Amino acid sequence: MPPQEIQEIYSHTVQQVLDLTGIFVFAVAGALTAVRKNFDVIGIVVLAEVTALGGGVIRDLIIGDVPPAAFRDLGYFITPLFAAFIVFFLHPQVERIYATIDIFDAAGLGLFCVTGTAKAFAYGLGPVQAAALGIVTAVGGGAIRDVLANEIPMLLRWDREIYTVPAMLGAGLVAALVETDTLNAITATCAAVFAFAFRVLALRYNWRAPRAWRRNSEVFEKYE
Amino acid sequence: MPPQEIQEIYSHTVQQVLDLTGIFVFAVAGALTAVRKNFDVIGIVVLAEVTALGGGVIRDLIIGDVPPAAFRDLGYFITPLFAAFIVFFLHPQVERIYATIDIFDAAGLGLFCVTGTAKAFAYGLGPVQAAALGIVTAVGGGAIRDVLANEIPMLLRWDREIYTVPAMLGAGLVAALVETDTLNAITATCAAVFAFAFRVLALRYNWRAPRAWRRNSEVFEKYE
Amino acid sequence: MPPQEIQEIYSHTVQQVLDLTGIFVFAVAGALTAVRKNFDVIGIVVLAEVTALGGGVIRDLIIGDVPPAAFRDLGYFITPLFAAFIVFFLHPQVERIYATIDIFDAAGLGLFCVTGTAKAFAYGLGPVQAAALGIVTAVGGGAIRDVLANEIPMLLRWDREIYTVPAMLGAGLVAALVETDTLNAITATCAAVFAFAFRVLALRYNWRAPRAWRRNSEVFEKYE
């Protein structure tokens, strides 16, 4: 039932290696959140799975690809367990290389916004909606992780470096490429690299998105 | 695949105008929540989209109408962006007319509980379940908004004017109308107006739902 | 469309009695949470429904059984209302017998992890993924309840007796039974009883899952 035309940007093997890499780094980020929140080993596993697979599962439910890919391919399921295992034993070391993790996480963000948008297109969604689902694929797992950890999702907060904007740019680029019939392995990689680089620069230079216009106006204060 | 018999209460154009109106006012409420929580522009857009479309997406996933209407009709998707744009620049003015917004929001509530129930019926659900999905359509988006903003959903709290009860009454009325084969544009509008008026009166006179019987009993206190 | 081979472990009547028992005790736990959080009667009903049906609805959406069983069988829907009604009037008495409730809740946990895994298998999922959905069926409703109540889900916290581990063991047992073609009413009951007993013992002896290895290391402290 899955219409595979656009989805197959890369060869199956390349696609799977990229997917598993993205899943792994997202799972590490989720597991580290659990360690920081003082959760037990079950909490570490749950947050690793949810962070890594949540965005893709929401996308697949919405486009009607059930059961979602995360529940068909065993590798998708095992990879977060492996990440949780590593974090459980090595979390001090992993924390020390967290700057490196951020780079990997940015790579996952770049990759998932591209493949998520392409998959939504392949299931017949329009360009704007496909791009929106690409963004959901990239940021949805992290949002569920933060909700479960009883925190405001990072993507909503103004005091965090921009996270959703790189995914928006990557997903928007893919939508434009599909519309102009120029999506292929090379252009898709360029879109993913662009989103990745934008995120890395945002981290490096603390780029933030603006809050509401005149947010500090006196009119507003009385509502706080 | 969508079985359209009952769903078409109104002509397509009327239905769409009503839908977009409801989506717009819900999106304004979501965007204002984001401004109050000091979220950035991305947070404003995300909460506007989620508040406006969340209830309908859950309903469509449950009845099996995928991709959900919100991901098929571009207007459904663009309208919250427009609302977010307005709130971003004009939020002090919008806050000032928040009493007016409450009226619009009540209109959205009345409309969505009616159309949500009718759509669930058209997909073959029983009257109780269809009414439940009508309520979900009306209050689900706001609940997701509050969870993302790390607050207890308004509909659960006893210190807020009743919000779910009007939706329950509207959805229950529609279920009764379908069962008695008397649902049409006029009776549906009456149900929506009734839910709307009930909500407005609840706001005006601070109607609240009761808490558990003898909630302040001494037996209970020791658990707090 | 539902492929019923494996799912029919018990006769239809037995299955339904067990399901409704599990739904009832989960609903009581949800309604009591609402009373403790000082929610109104609507909040009590919502948390009762969500706790009792949430896990099964997520499972059914993922395996593609829509509308979910909870929206087809009216009994599934009415039972939580009945539980909410009882808690609304009798909550001090119910609180007093909460230890008894814990036993019932453990029975629901044991039952749902078994039937959830079996149903996922019947829809074609692999053993690991089916077991994962069995766990989701058992603990998902409680997780949604805690998120709505703005608390960290019990299953993630290290300061609670283990809750997910019994479900994991029960679901894993069922997966092994299906793989070895030995799942029947007797072995399934044994798996459910095993998960149930494990949970009761965990409560009795305060069993807890470990936190991350060397969680208190000095390296970690600076991140807190």
Automatic annotation (TrEMBL), chains A, B, C:
<feature type="transmembrane region" description="Helical">
    <location>
        <begin position="17"/>
        <end position="35"/>
    </location>
</feature>
<feature type="domain" description="Glycine transporter">
    <location>
        <begin position="103"/>
        <end position="177"/>
    </location>
</feature>
<keyword id="KW-1133">Transmembrane helix</keyword>
<keyword id="KW-1003">Cell membrane</keyword>
<protein>
    <submittedName>
        <fullName>Trimeric intracellular cation channel family protein</fullName>
    </submittedName>
</protein>
<feature type="transmembrane region" description="Helical">
    <location>
        <begin position="74"/>
        <end position="91"/>
    </location>
</feature>
<feature type="domain" description="Glycine transporter">
    <location>
        <begin position="17"/>
        <end position="91"/>
    </location>
</feature>
<feature type="transmembrane region" description="Helical">
    <location>
        <begin position="128"/>
        <end position="148"/>
    </location>
</feature>
<dbReference type="Pfam" id="PF03458">
    <property type="entry name" value="Gly_transporter"/>
</dbReference>
<keyword id="KW-0812">Transmembrane</keyword>
<feature type="transmembrane region" description="Helical">
    <location>
        <begin position="160"/>
        <end position="178"/>
    </location>
</feature>
<feature type="transmembrane region" description="Helical">
    <location>
        <begin position="184"/>
        <end position="205"/>
    </location>
</feature>
<feature type="transmembrane region" description="Helical">
    <location>
        <begin position="42"/>
        <end position="62"/>
    </location>
</feature>
<feature type="transmembrane region" description="Helical">
    <location>
        <begin position="103"/>
        <end position="122"/>
    </location>
</feature>
<comment type="similarity">
    <text>Belongs to the UPF0126 family.</text>
</comment>
<dbReference type="InterPro" id="IPR005115">
    <property type="entry name" value="Gly_transporter"/>
</dbReference>
<keyword id="KW-0472">Membrane</keyword>
